[in-house]
Structure formats: C-alpha cells, structure tokens
C-alpha cells in the first residue's frame, strides 16, 4: 500500500512539473496587445488594432474587421495559420482598409517574436517588425 501511495505521489509531482513547464513555455497565452507600429509606420490615427492569444487561438480587431485563427510557438518561433476575418468595409478613418490588409498579411508571414520592455515584437522574414504594447 505504501508503494502505491508513493507511486501516486510521484506521478502527481511529475504531472505538476509538466504542467508548470507548459505554462512557462508560452508567454503569449492569455495576453492581449494593441498595435503600436508596422515597421516604421504608426497606425492610422483614430484606429485600433489588437491581438489576443488564448490556448493556440489568436483573435482581435484588424482596425475594421474582427479576425481569428491559430498560432503556434516553438521557442522564439511564431507562426499563424487558418487566419480568417469578417468582411466589412470601413470608409474611415482614411487608410484603415490598407492598414488592415497589411497587418493581416504580416501576421501570415510572421517568423519570430520577442517580449521586451513591455512590448511584443513580431518579426517577419524580411526583418520588418510589428510592435505591440499591452492592451489596457
């Protein structure tokens, strides 16, 4: 009986260690960010673009449309797949549709990420970065 209790406790300890390791390996899970810049460009004045990460799913506001999909991280590598968005057209602020298209295309090309000084930077293969600040 003591052997069974000992094995049970060891099993639970291992399960807890694995669970803790999994949580720490995904620093994006449960976070929401607001777009600060696309490369050297600031977002269109009066627009709001967000990104939320939750259990392998990504969602947010592209500036006009809601979007979603899947994300995967491995170390500092980041990729998005199965991205979709609603199909509304917004006439203002001026340039919002172009910005939204560029933003979603950039997400589809993401290659890595880094969280530094309270900012999330998503890097594309060409070196351009999407920079986000934590959403309030």
The assigned CATH architecture is Beta Barrel
Which stretches are low in confidence, meaning pLDDT under 50 for 5 or more residues running?
11-23
Number of strands: 8
Strand order of the largest sheet: 5-4-3-2-1-8-7-6
Just give the CATH class.
Mainly Beta
Number of domains: 1
Computed over alpha carbons, the radius of gyration is 19 Å
Map the helices and strands.
Elements: H1 2-24, E1 32-38, E2 50-54, E3 57-61, E4 66-74, E5 77-85, H2 96-108, E6 112-116, E7 119-123, E8 129-134
Antiparallel strand pairs: 1-2, 1-8, 2-3, 3-4, 4-5, 6-7, 7-8
Architecture overview:
Helices cover 26% and strands 38% of the residues. It is α+β, with helices and mostly antiparallel strands and 136 residues long. It has one domain: Lipocalin (Beta Barrel). Strands 5-4-3-2-1-8-7-6 form an eight-stranded antiparallel beta sheet, covered by helices on one side. A hairpin with a 2-residue loop joins strand 2 and strand 3. About 10% of the residues have low confidence.
Question: In short, what is this structure?
Answer:
With 136 residues, this protein is α+β, with helices and mostly antiparallel strands. It has helices at 2-24, 96-108; strands spanning 32-38, 50-54, 57-61, 66-74, 77-85, 112-116, 119-123, 129-134.
Using brief descriptors, characterize the structure shown.
single chain; 136 residues; alpha+beta; Lipocalin; 8-stranded antiparallel sheet; 2 helices; 26% helix; globular
């Amino acid at each position: 009986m003591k052997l069974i209790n000992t094995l049970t406790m060891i099993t639970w300890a291992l399960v807890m260690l694995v669970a803790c390791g999994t949580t720490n390996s995904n620093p994006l899970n449960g976070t929401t960010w607001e777009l600060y810049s696309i490369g050297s460009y600031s977002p269109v004045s009066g627009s709001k673009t967000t990104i939320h990460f939750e259990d392998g799913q990504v969602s947010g506001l592209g500036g006009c449309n809601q979007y979603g999909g899947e994300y995967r991280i491995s170390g500092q590598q980041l990729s998005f797949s199965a991205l979709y968005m609603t199909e509304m057209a917004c006439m203002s602020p001026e340039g919002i549709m172009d910005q939204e298209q560029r933003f979603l295309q950039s997400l589809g090309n993401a290659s890595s990420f880094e969280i530094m000084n309270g900012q999330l930077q998503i890097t594309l293969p060409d070196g351009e970065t999407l920079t986000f600040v934590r959403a309030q």
